[in-house]
Amino acid sequence: MKPTSAFIDTPAPRTDRRERILDAAETCFVRNGFHRTTMLALAKAASMSAGNFYHYFSSKEAIVLGIIERDRNRNAELWEELVKSGDQTEVYIDMVASYFTAMTRDAAILQVEIWAEATRNPAIADIVASADAKGRAWFLDTLTASAGLPERDCGDLYWAMTAMLRGMIVDRATIAEYDPKPALSRFVDMMRAGFAKGGPAD
């Protein structure tokens, strides 16, 4: 972190400063929680003046939206690259398994913190609900045709998958020595069976 005297710093591209803010926000939300993190603390963590900071984000809710959108955009870019090399359903299973294998405890804590705040903050609840709806729509639009499944069966598979993955995130956040491998193995089996049979495995 830069010293206080460097808050008015050398010019940087807008995207670089936006990334800096999002990185700082993730760290602060994990360490202090969303509710106890102030906009001033976020500006300080990003080594920016408060006035400059507000040019990029007007509220903590806007920052959460930025974090979610950044994660979604990164996954979309990865998907576009990986799907060139194989079957969409297998690429999806491998991508999700790799993502959760690499997930750090801090990343899981951040996700749980956002979910917790969504139970208290209607603005965050709307952001989370919108992100979930977009994720479900993408899953149905992209993988229903690829797997040759009826939309209802693919929808059932989506909800079974979501329940399992959210449980893994909570475990990763709350159990210091959590090993995702057994759950991921079950996830892979469930998804392959679901895509093959038109629903989640028994």
Topology:
Layout (H helix, E strand, L loop, with lengths): L13 H19 L6 H7 L4 H4 L6 H23 L5 H15 L2 H14 L3 H26 L3 H24 L6 H17 L5
Helix pairs in contact: 1-2, 1-4, 1-6, 4-7, 5-9, 6-7, 6-8, 7-8, 8-9
Protein name: AcrR family transcriptional regulator
Organism: Methylobacterium brachythecii
InterPro entries: Homeodomain-like_sf, HTH_TetR, TetR_C_31
List its salient traits:
202 residues, mainly alpha, 2 domains, 9 helices, elongated, DNA binding, AcrR family transcriptional regulator, transcription, HTH_TetR
Distance between the termini: 51 Å
Number of structurally distinct domains: 2
> Taking all residues together, what is the mean pLDDT?
86
The fraction of residues assigned to DSSP E strands is under 5%
How many β-strand stretches? 0
* SSE class: mainly alpha
Low-confidence stretches: 1-13
What is the string of helix and strand elements? HHHHHHHHH
Radius of gyration: 19 Å
Number of helices: 9
Helical proportion, percent range: over 70%
Largest sheet entry: none
Which overall shape is indicated by the principal axes computed on the Cα atoms?
A: elongated
